[in-house]
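Hey Z.,

So I finally got round to the adenosine-5'-triphosphate thing we talked about over coffee. Here's the setup:
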Amino acid sequence: MRTLVVASQKGGVGKTTIAGHLAVMAESKGAGPVALIDTDPQGSLSSWWNERQAETPTFASVDIAHLADHLKQLEKAGVKLAIIDTPPAVTETIRKVLAVADVVLIPTRPSPHDLRAVGSTVELVEAAGKRMVFVINGAAQRAKITGEAAIALSQHGTVAPVTLYQRTDFAASMIDGRTAQEINFASRSAGEIEKLWIYVSTQLRRK
Ligand SMILES: Nc1ncnc2c1ncn2[C@@H]1O[C@H](COP(=O)(O)OP(=O)(O)OP(=O)(O)O)[C@@H](O)[C@H]1O
Ligand SMILES: [Mg+2]
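And the result:
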């Protein structure tokens, strides 16, 4: 089993959106069974999952104090990929979650505020000694700042070779517990998530 942690100390960058979309994409690509874990007290990912009709991915309620044990149990139960959503804060929770990560995915919006705020997340991931991958989310079409953001982020670590654009279906699809690719598999959003999954899965396979 591999564990992907989606983290960013900055709020509203797309952690929950990306965790849900990647989990559904990973299942559809045969990388499952996938278990989703929500460590955010806001519970956005679990609320979304509760709206879902589909049976996969599964949802695992865990107690952070026993996270490593819970993950072992999931692995024994046959889970191949655990995706953990995290709260937008630098807390003890984040440290404990980072400790179990194989890869940490850090979504970042291409704005000066978001880029400046990324440092504290990077420090935490570096302190945990984990592999990190940035993904630019919520980009505007043809905006120069997207390329500039990628360059700025590449000073800290690897930037995924796919940008997620600002698209209504990323948000609207989640209202009733679905994802953009479940509304329209041929959509641009679905294509972006597919590319992101392919990249993240290669990072997860590296030891
Ligand atoms: N690429 C996108 N296009 C359009 N809307 C998006 C995109 N990514 C995220 N959103 C929307 O932006 C808002 C914040 O996204 P999300 O909740 O996934 O961020 P988050 O990092 O999990 O936030 P928090 O830090 O509060 O947990 C949501 O309303 C979501 O639907
Ligand atoms: Mg969230």
